[in-house]
Amino acid sequence: xxxxxxxxxxxxxxxxxxxxxxxxxxxxxxxxxxxxxxxxxxxxxxxxxxxxxxxxxxxxxxxxxxxxxxxxxxxxxxxxxxxxxxxxxxxxxxxxxxxxxxxxxxxxxxxxxxxxxxxxxxxxxxxxxxxxxxxxxxxxxxxxxxxxxxxxxxxxxxxxxxxxxxxxxxxxxxxxxxxxxxxxxxxxxxxxxxxxxxxxxxxxxxxxxxxxxxxxxxxxxxxxxxxxxxxxxxxxxxxxxxxxxxxxxxxxxxxxxxxxxxxxxxxxxxxxxxxxxxxxxxxxxxxxxxxxxxxxxxxxxxxxxxxxxxxxxxxxxxxxxxxxxxxxxxxxxxxxxxxxxxxxxxxxxxxxxxxxxxxxxxxxxxxxxxxxxxxxxxxxxxxxxxxxxxxxxxxxxxxxxxxxxxxxxxxxxxxxxxxxxx
Length: 422
Known about the structure:
With 422 residues, the chain is mostly beta strands. It contains six helices and 26 strands.
């Protein structure tokens, strides 16, 4: 899965805009005017004399590159929407007018991008790879030196890594923005080695970033702010089997207990926790429960395996009735599809480029690494309108011969506001 040239790379690519993309623009403009497609340039000269000669010829024939900066914004936008992420960053570095269009429509462009699969090779110290399984493309994201750091999750467009000597280091793959959080208390450090989860939020009142840390084997939530020196512990006494998930919805924090016995509303400023006992019984073979924000509704997804080989799974979706605080089953997701990994589940409008009402999940074993399923029919596989051969990611093992964690990455989350609380 390559882009047709050497692996496209995040970081610094705006300095050298792809000649291939420029050729596509020229062809696009000429075809729009009904002119024959002509590529009026040769390969880039290698010597200073050749550069000077080319510059003189360009002036003589009145072929100036400055004309590219005068293209109308609506035409630049239509071309920009055809680019992949790497060429988008290169596009924004061509000139001031192109950068203006790219910045103005950045959120719109990013929201239209397909989810990417992120994986970090055991040998990589300064990079990770992002795979577009729908178009068969691979991108390389440059990162600071992560020697010794362990990937532990992705939250709101930030990759969450852990250095056992200095704490958590979060970095945004698109903007390069970095956040640091302290090391967990010594008596709580064990949760990183169990089933660890994290969530990044932003306080509108303090204008600071905060991170929640929790585990499915513990009944407490840890909270710390960016640049802080300690973690605050919130114990949830009603939860006895651990925490399944935590989400911010309408500026409130909702905590789901393991096997969905309770849904709790937590107020970090006062430390108050309001538990609500759920009205549904989770099946005995249920292996996962996750909270999902779906079209202005707080929902819950449950996953159950129907046989020991894990060939067939049953996905159920519920929405939370906020007035009665009870779960109501949903039969369909409308134009949305659900992208889920072990740590998170996110609803995406896939109607423009795939099928709706589908679930695309990343498994934890090599034989179930990537699964596409319909919410309505547990027995059928749906590939979102694409050929199955494109839906592949390489299998990567760590030093202990264990499957390296895979995460879904959503480009639109890198620039939009992080989930906010009061």
